[in-house]
Amino acid sequence: MPVKAVSALYEPINLYKPFAPSVGIVDGRSEHVTLLGMKMPWPFTTRMTVVQLASGELFLHSPIAFDAALARQLQSLGRVRHLASPNRGHYAHIGEWARAFPEAVTWASPGVRERARSQRVDIHFQRDLEMHAPPDWRDDIDQTIIPGAVLDEVVFFHCDSKTLIVADTVMNYEAERLSQPYRLIARLVGICSPGGGISPDLRLVFWPKRRDVRDAYEQVLSWEPERVILSHGLCFEANAGPAIRHAFRWALDG
């Protein structure tokens, strides 16, 4: 399937789209995962979440490839201040945004510094994301870490809009909009709408620490999210509780 066919799922790309009060998304071009120096054949969609903080500053979650017109649009919403990598797979374009906005703070998720060095990606991370939200945004956004054996993911919760923001711990592809063989693969691995789920490879990553994952899951539920923004697939715009329980059922049953 050509990359364009995947991108078309969420066109227009490189355009800010309101999602909830003070929260929007920007869909980007499709990209490929590189493993052991080889480009994997399945292209995946990319999505950035933009949160307007009460301070007037912008928090960018999982920045997509830099686009000058998009940058100008975001500047009309507020000052680009925080560039956050939620996990080791969502970091590659932070350097591009940091060069365009040198006053922005770059935030590293656990293990992402080492990943960037190993991939020779030019990014200077200034601060580290931890279990609890830093003073920079704690009045607007809460956070926790879902721990894995070789990958942790920092998940965020925008309090006022009750929006959960995740990267890879939940995927929700629309199978009917995928061409073969990707439609079949997505269905077989259980990452299709309406419920979505976590891919088997990531489930293996999180499985050794599933007791700690349960604790993180309980934290997420305590926020009582009403919406979920996903990096990959159709977001949940309402009734988020059942979707979250469905996605984490593997950890609860283990």
Overview of this structure, please?
With 254 residues, the protein is an alpha/beta fold. 27% of the residues lie in helices and 27% in strands. The protein has one domain (3-253): Metallo-beta-lactamase, Chain A (4-Layer Sandwich). It is globular. The longest helix is centred in the C-terminal third of the chain and has 13 residues, at 210-222. The model is unreliable at 1-7 (pLDDT under 50). The chain has helices at 3-7, 68-75, 94-100, 112-118, 182-189, 200-206, 210-222, 240-247, 249-253; strands spanning 16-20, 23-35, 38-52, 57-61, 79-84, 105-108, 127-128, 141-146, 153-158, 163-165, 227-229.
The helix tally amounts to 9
Unreliably modeled segments: 1-7
Named CATH architecture: 4-Layer Sandwich
Strand proportion? 25-35%
What's the name of the CATH homologous superfamily? Answer: Ribonuclease Z/Hydroxyacylglutathione hydrolase-like
- Shape descriptor: globular
Distance between the termini: 35 Å
Please state how the strands of the largest beta sheet are arranged side by side: 1-2-3-4-5-6-7
Structural class by secondary-structure content: alpha/beta
Q: How much helicity do the residues have?
A: 25-40%
Give the number of domains.
1
Number of DSSP strand runs = 11
